[in-house]
Amino acid sequence: MHATEELRELADLGIPIVSSTHARGVLPDSHPRSLGAFHNSAAVETLLASADLALVVGSRLRSNETKTYSIQFPEELIQVDAAPAAQQRNYAVRHFICAEARETLAALVQDLAGHSFTSAAYDEEIRQARTDAVAQLTEQLGPYAEICFALREALPKDGILVRDITMSGSTWGSRLFPVEAPLRNIHSLAGAIGLGLAHAIGSAKANPDKKVVALVGDGGLMLGIGEIATMVQEQSNLVLLVMNDGGYGVMRGIQNKYFDDRQYFNQLHTPSYKDLGTSMGCQSYLATSVAEFKDVIQQAIAYIGPSVVEVDMNSIGPLNFAGPRRRSCINKGPARHRKTSLRTAANILLWTITMA
Ligand SMILES: Cc1ncc(C[n+]2csc(CCOP(=O)(O)OP(=O)(O)O)c2C)c(N)n1
Fold this sequence. Notes:
Elements: H1 4-12, H2 42-49, E1 53-57, E2 73-74, E3 77-81, E4 95-98, H3 101-111, H4 120-141, H5 143-154, E5 160-163, H6 167-176, E6 185-187, H7 196-206, E7 212-217, H8 218-222, H9 227-233, E8 238-244, H10 249-258, H11 273-280, E9 283-287, H12 290-302, E10 307-312, H13 313-316, E11 337-338, E12 348-350
Parallel strand pairs: 1-3, 1-12, 2-11, 3-4, 5-6, 5-7, 7-8, 8-10, 9-10
Helix pairs in contact: 1-3, 2-4, 4-5, 5-6, 5-12
This protein binds thiamine diphosphate (TPP).
């Protein structure tokens, strides 16, 4: 089970908490000390740089969680993981505790009973970091931020967003989209495109009382396009939300930023997903503007059963996303830690929890 209660108690002691994108909602976004999954934001990096101690729980600090290993942690870095192989895997950690996350955090909460690290000034820094991270991403995404918030408004609180690996998933789906509980924002951890719809059908099967939205790109969807038939056959209560930009947008961004915009094999032949959905027996919609999206997403979510919403991204405009940092840009030297001594009133930052 998730260590949600233990995390909330730690946050209530004054400790800010960052989650991986896989663990979204492990601490509700509405908690004032939740930094969501904004570990890639400059404001959160600055906060981390001021921490005296960071505790990493259930995360292997993969490239996705560390801006391709470029994030610097304080020297006082403690890692808790149930798997011994996680030790020193990607970062040199000072203390490694091989243990189950929930039990360890419960013990920590007990040990810290009677202590408090709260500070109005630190709380203000946390609030500001979060506000800056949200504002920066909202500005970067332009109309797609509006699409994100329209989806949030339309989807019931307990609805489940399942993301494929797409620009939309990696920007607004994983971070800007507010989440209040675990297992409501799901994606393929290994990063392979194409599993989003299959995962969404499984999520709908396992949660017949909840609405599911599968957020997919046109490229990834084509890898498992036959699953549309499965979602109809199973009468899944799910909206297949296809962000159609006519190609592999992530690769376009990478080839633009790192390869002088030499574009290879990124333009794809795509069908009309609205027509495809209709022919498969789904309630189907097309949105060519934010205003249309606001309307059709409400209709699709209100409809009980399988539906398709195709978003024509070429009509809406470009989505700014340059993909992950390139490995060759990275300082691979050992100095990934900031030198520090532990102050008495420690600023502690709890990094990330995946599954407990
Ligand atoms: C199985 C697999 N093949 C290739 C990749 C590399 N890859 C990552 S994102 C991406 C493009 C996905 O395109 P699309 O689903 O249309 O989403 P968009 O990038 O346009 O948002 C590709 C090819 C991958 N992650 N997994």
